[in-house]
Design goal:
The structure holds 2 protein chains of 2 kinds.
Chain A lengths: L2 H12 L1 H40 L4 E6 L1 H8 L4 E14 L9 E7 L11 E4 L7 E5 L1 H6 L8 E11 L7 H6 L24 E17 L14 E7 L8 E7 L5 H12 L2 E4 L1 H6 L7 H35 L1 H9 L4 H46 L13 H28 L2 H6 L15 H7 L1 H12 L1 H37 L5 E5 L13 H13 L8 E15 L5 H11 L7 E11 L1 H11 L14 E5 L1 E7 L2 E7 L9 E8 L2 E4 L2 E11 L2 E7 L14 E3 L1 H4 E11 L11 E6 L3 H7 L6 E8 L3 H14 L6 E5 H44 L1 H9 L4 H40 L10 H28 L2 H6 L4
Parallel strand pairs in A: 3-8, 5-7, 13-23, 14-22
Antiparallel strand pairs in A: 1-9, 1-10, 2-3, 2-9, 4-7, 5-8, 6-7, 11-24, 11-25, 12-13, 12-17, 12-24, 14-23, 15-16, 17-22, 18-19, 19-20, 20-21
Helix pairs in contact in A: 1-10, 2-8, 2-10, 2-11, 2-22, 8-11, 8-15, 8-22, 10-11, 10-22, 13-14, 14-24, 15-22, 15-24, 15-25, 22-25, 24-25
Chain B lengths: L1 E12 L6 E12 L3 E5 L6 H9 L6 E6 L2 E2 L5 H11 E4 L11 H12 L5 H10 L15 H13 L5 E5 L7 H17 L3 E5 L3 H4 L4 E6 L2 E7 L3
Parallel strand pairs in B: 3-8, 3-9, 6-7, 7-8
Antiparallel strand pairs in B: 1-2, 1-4, 4-5, 9-10
Classes of the chains: A alpha+beta, B alpha/beta.
């Protein structure tokens, strides 16, 4: 072995701790590079799989391409692979959805699924032109039930404008029939609401198909438009079919998709579809925010790691090189060339890399693989609607090579820069080391106060701190980065968790079932009797579903009542005062009362849960109401939002007969409708004004107006209130919620006029909510209410948000821990080597009488300087970032207070000092172990 | 009166076969105000002797009495204070603190004591050391001779009972060497300090009151020079 290599290896061995710290530094940074890149590749791969699964593998697709034009696309040299589906025709299917009356038969080649997705839920794909796979949506949405193996005979034809049906050629000419658009899936059904369709199926041919499978509804963006009038059914394309097709292409240069798309679209005038998700995830398209964000984030992370590792490794090398400057000088004086010395330093770097990089690669891969294993469930919950797409760790050799290369370059650069310095020094100077410590007087100037207050040791340590400013700066900066990252990431996750908690707070049921009144997907306008019957039917069959733990049906009706001031809660009054800076002006105030009728069994359960006796609650003549009364009010004044959670009624008055009153809104007199126009004081009496309808802003006309006295205009009643509920029941929606058993509905409704607000919903609790949802959906189909009810899995929504929080937390904290470890290693390295550089000085101080107490004092002061310097910058910055996070979080619409994360601050402060003090103690001990005399006499440092 | 008394001092490095006797049962005493030169070949044990006298190294056996006080009966901290007040050490390589300026380096032992610096004495010292005008300089702004004068100043600031110098001129040219020796002699006379100097330079040794020659850890000869 060459003498330089031996020299290098020996000096590595001699400084075991430093060599170890350097190797650990290399391992840390390599594993962080690896983990970051691998995580990126894994997530990217998952997203690509996801996009391919849902959107297909194509890059650019073309819609409704005329038969003659297909070859213009497929024969373009940029196209690597393609597939298509061709219209065979439409057939009436007897759908209950009036806007989607057809089955749309699409002919596909047998290798269609190589590029485009068909998600079979049952059965198999078609193998010939007599077999079809039908979209499940046909059954859930139209109610048409088909079975596997069933043969259906259809009249398959083309959609045609009604104006063009059965007309003579002349008429067709006159209407310029050629120019009318061909009705394809892109065109919704020609039908205005409440009227007959203005299109027809023509040129029909009878065809018989065998149903061989069912699939999920085809993607609405790329395969079956949301407004398409036909449910897709796939069959194998017949030879000789000459109708238009949708063509999906994979191109050889995905980055050129835009150019390719433009060329084709200009050439044959068709609409195109671009698989943006796939292109962005595979980083071929930079249009979307995703690519920018992903690349930006990755660069920031890698930047941080590079910074951390370069400063760590650079520090180590610069110290080891300066320690060996004298040795280099000696080597040079006996004839070593610059090149040889440079080689020796680079050799040292290479040796360290050979040990550090493989270990780093392995630990990085392991770390991220384990992390993803833990997170894969969360990630799937968050991202995938289909749970069978699991996130798999992708072992990417390219990523590993990239990580090794970046790390190797980092190490080489860190080793080379200090070496260059050592090489430049002339041999005699380096032997003498006279140049090693070049100090400027001004630089080590310390305020005389320091010495006066803290003693002479403090002066000495702050002078030392100043002397090594540059080295200290990197250390201080790496501490700074760690602290800022730690505090901001943890406050981010705290706010994030807060949002999720706030969101899930209202969740006191797992699944909600609603019935739609029509296709507008809402039940706000009340329900038809037919729908009431449907939901009752469902309710009555729910006991057959095992996956449901508990369920309640609640029928809610609401109205507004006025309540006397004395019954209104003080908190409510205070809120009004704070918000409107006024007392409740009149002697009474309006409150929204919602009557909730829940089935008797559920009502009894509720009483039992709250520990309330049944007495008085089932009394038909004079029933008590259970009350839940607490509402969150949000007031927005400009930028500021204030939130109050207050009751309306004064609970101290319960139980009681609550007098409520209501101003008559309208009445009929002599065949004329009169409406309320507020009150007016006339001759000291408060009168209620009524008049015939007026335009907005117009006042009443005294000639037609009628004034009623209070007795005439105001109806009063008493509501018997029993107990107030402590816990919010799942079904409550209004302000003051009165809860009664279902059996008393008739008698109560007879007594009060309950108009306006009406709801009928089923609230379900289920541990396995996903299964419950599937079971309920099946049940809905079975009772023939398919497409009319919605099943909302509220629990999974919360779960997926929670999953996102978990992912974010694990990744953020993982990264912070690693970067903090690099920072810690950095601090340790700087401090320990710095002190060993000062061995001789310390020995001198000891020889002129520095006691160990004085030494401890000096070192404590130096630690303090490190800690304070880094905290001085990092704490305010962290606070700023926390505020920024708070600002963003608040922008997301959740009211929350800004708080200083004291706990995180304390953790950060303690960690910084622990690291610094430990490094000091370690180094001082090492120095103390050495013989003062030896150090003094040893002219080498 | 003997200010310094050494009794049966031995220092052994290593163990077993590798054992080296740096000092082998050395005894002598030095009266106050005497200028002693210790000479001997490399590795003879003279530096070890000096360091033991200065309280920076511990003897394997034997005792050192300074002003009647048993030096090694003290604990580490007491020893540190002892070094600070009773001994002034001057090294071949100056061993100044690079971040402290001339004044600060000279007054270091006083500062460590937390005491006030005697300004008149300091000025007198700086004048004597010909460092006037360089009080604010840092060590790396000084020549070798100047640096050595600072270290002598540091050794003298507490007016120690004994001044120990280990090859104080070993790193200096003849002109500077001469100046340093003169300085040491002046302080020896002026403050009637006991001065023990290790040297290779015969011309320095011959200026002493007494020359002790050490070889193989033993005193080979002990001569008083008559003037």
């Amino acid at each position: 072995m060459n003498i330089f290599k031996q020299f290098t290896l020996r000096s590595l061995k001699e400084n075991k701790t430093r060599t170890l710290v350097t190797i650990i530094g290399i391992i840390l940074s390599v594993s962080m590079f690896t983990a970051t890149i691998e995580a990126f590749v894994t997530v990217q791969n998952y997203l690509i799989n996801y996009a391919e699964m849902y959107n297909g593998k194509f890059h650019v697709g073309f819609v409704d391409v005329e038969n003659d034009d297909v070859s213009k696309i497929t024969e373009d040299e940029r196209v690597e692979k393609y597939t298509y589906f061709q219209e065979i025709g439409y057939a009436e299917i007897g759908s209950s959805n009036e806007y989607k009356p057809y089955l749309y038969i699409a002919g596909i080649p047998s290798d269609f699924t190589d590029i485009m997705p068909i998600h079979l839920t049952e059965g198999r794909l078609p193998e010939n032109s007599n077999e079809i796979v039908v979209s499940e949506h046909l059954y859930t949405n139209s109610g048409v039930k088909l079975k596997i193996g069933q043969q259906i005979t259809l009249d398959v034809g083309d959609r045609q404008w009604i104006e063009l049906v059965d007309i003579s050629d002349e008429e067709y000419e006159a209407l310029e029939g050629d120019t009318w658009a061909k009705l394809t899936q892109e065109y919704p059904l020609r039908k205005a609401e409440g009227e007959e369709a203005t299109e027809k199926i023509v040129n029909t041919k009878q065809k018989t198909y065998t149903v061989v499978g069912f699939c999920l509804r085809p993607d609405e963006q790329y395969l079956e438009p949301y407004t398409a009038p036909g449910y897709t059914a796939y069959t194998i394309n017949e030879a000789g079919n000459t109708k238009h097709s949708n063509v999906y292409t994979i191109i050889s240069q995905p980055t050129d998709y835009s150019r390719f798309n433009l060329d084709i679209v200009r050439g044959i005038e068709v609409n195109s579809l671009i698989n943006h998700d796939l292109l962005t995830y595979s980083l071929q398209s930079f249009d979307s925010a995703f690519a920018g964000l992903a690349i930006g984030l990755l660069s920031i992370l890698i930047g941080l790691i590079v910074f951390g590792s370069v400063s760590l490794i650079y520090n180590t090398f610069s110290i080891s090189v300066s320690e060996r400057t004298k040795q280099f000088g000696i080597l040079k004086s006996v004839g070593a060339t610059k090149k040889q010395i440079r080689k020796s330093v680079l050799y040292e770097a290479a040796v360290l890399c050979v040990i550090g990089i493989p270990v780093g690669l392995i630990s990085g891969c392991l770390g991220i693989a384990v992390t993803f294993r833990f997170l894969s469930d969360s990630i799937s919950t968050f991202l995938a609607e289909l749970t069978d797409l699991k996130m798999q760790f992708v072992f990417s050799p390219l990523a590993l090579i990239a990580a090794s290369m970046i790390s190797f370059v980092t190490v080489i650069i860190s080793a080379y820069i200090p070496a260059r310095k050592a090489i430049k020094i002339n041999p005699i100077e380096s032997v003498r080391q006279s140049n090693e410590i070049k100090i400027k007087r001004r630089r080590v100037k310390v305020s005389p106060l320091t010495g006066k207050i803290f003693g002479f040791e403090a002066t000495l340590s702050s002078k030392n701190f100043k002397r090594n400013k540059r080295k200290y700066r990197t250390t201080v900066f790496s501490l700074f980065v760690s602290v800022v990252l730690f505090i901001s990431a943890s406050s981010l996750s705290t706010y994030f968790t807060d949002i999720v908690e706030a969101e899930s707070q209202d969740m006191n049921y797992d699944v909600l079932v609603r019935v739609y009144n029509n296709d507008i997907h809402s039940d706000d306008d009340g329900l038809s009797d037919e729908n009431k019957a449907l939901i009752n039917k469902l309710y009555n069959s729910l006991n057959s579903v095992d996956s449901i733990d508990e369920y309640t049906m609640a029928e809610a009706m609401g109205t507004e009542f006025m309540v006397d001031n004395e019954f209104i809660a003080d908190e409510y009054k205070k809120m009004l005062k704070a918000v409107y800076s006024s007392e409740i002006a009149e002697s009474r105030d309006y409150g929204t009362f919602v009557y909730n009728f829940i089935d008797d069994a559920a009502f009894k359960r509720l009483l039992e849960k709250e520990g309330i006796s049944e007495k008085g609650y089932f009394d038909e003549n004079n029933p008590n109401a259970l009350v839940y009364d607490r509402t969150t009010h949000i007031f927005q004044t400009g930028e500021k939002e204030s939130v109050y959670s207050v009751p309306f009624l004064d609970k101290d008055k319960f139980p009681c007969a609550l007098p409520v009153s209501d101003i008559m809104y309208t009445f009929e007199k002599d065949g004329t409708e009169y409406y309320s126009f507020g009150t007016e004081e006339i001759n000291g009496e408060l009168l209620y004004k009524y008049d015939i309808p007026r335009d907005e802003g117009e006042d009443i006309d005294p000639s037609t107006a009628i004034y009623l006295s209070e007795e005439e205009a105001v109806t009063t009643a008493n509501i018997n209130i029993g107990n107030s509920l402590k816990e919010k029941p799942c079904f409550v929606t209004g302000q003051v919620n009165l809860i009664y058993p279902e059996s008393l509905k008739e008698s109560i409704c007879a007594e009060y006029e309950l108009d306006g607000y009406y709801q009928m919903r089923i609230y379900i609790f289920a541990d396995d909510h996903a299964k419950a949802v599937t079971d309920i959906e099946q049940l809905i189909k079975d009772i023939g209410a398919g497409g009319k009810m919605s099943v909302h899995d509220y629990a999974s929504e919360i779960e997926s948000t929670r999953a996102l929080v978990t992912i974010a937390k694990v990744l953020a904290y993982g990264f912070i821990v690693l970067i903090s470890m690099i920072a810690a290693a950095n601090v340790f390295n700087t401090i320990s080597t710095n002190i060993s550089l000062r061995r001789r000085e310390i020995a001198t101080l000891k020889s002129v009488g520095l006691t160990s107490k004085g030494m401890a004092k000096m070192m404590t002061f130096e630690s303090l300087l490190y800690g304070l310097k880094s905290l001085m910058f990092s704490l305010p910055v962290s606070l700023g970032v926390t505020y920024l996070v708070y600002f963003v979080a608040r922008d997301s619409g959740y009211e929350m207070g800004f708080y200083v994360p004291w706990d995180k601050f304390i953790i950060a402060i303690l960690s910084v000092f622990i690291i610094v003090v430990l490094s000091m103690v370690y180094s001082i001990r090492k120095v103390n172990r050495e013989n003062t005399v030896e150090t003094l006499r040893n002219e080498n440092i | 009166m003997d200010i310094l008394k050494i009794e049966n001092l031995s220092k052994i490095y290593g163990e077993g076969e590798n054992q080296v006797k740096a000092l082998d049962n050395v005894s002598f005493s030095v009266p106050k105000g005497q200028f002693v030169a210790i000479v001997g070949p490399s590795g003879s044990g003279k530096s070890t002797l000096l360091h033991i006298l200065g309280g920076v190294d511990k003897p394997t056996s034997g005792k050192v009495f300074l002003d009647g006080q048993d030096v090694y009966a003290q604990n580490e901290d007491q020893l540190a204070v002892f070094r600070r007040r009773q001994v002034g050490l001057v090294y071949q390589f100056y061993n100044l603190i690079p971040v402290l300026n001339v004044t600060e380096n000279i007054t270091l032992p006083v500062l460590m004591d937390g005491k006030k610096v005697d300004k008149t004495y300091l000025e007198e010292l700086i004048g004597m050391l010909s460092l006037k005008g360089r009080e604010k300089h840092l060590p790396n702004e000084l020549s070798g001779g100047q640096q050595q004068r600072v270290s002598i100043g540091r050794a003298l600031i507490n007016n120690p009972a004994v001044m120990l110098a280990d090859e104080p001129t070993g790193n200096l040219d003849s002109k500077n060497s001469h100046e340093i020796v003169e300085l040491l002699k002046v302080s020896n006379k002026k403050y009637s300090q006991t001065l023990i100097v290790i040297t290779h330079d015969e011309s320095i040794a011959l200026q002493a009151d007494r020359i002790i020659t050490i070889n193989d850890g033993k005193i080979e000869s002990d001569k008083l020079l008559q003037r």
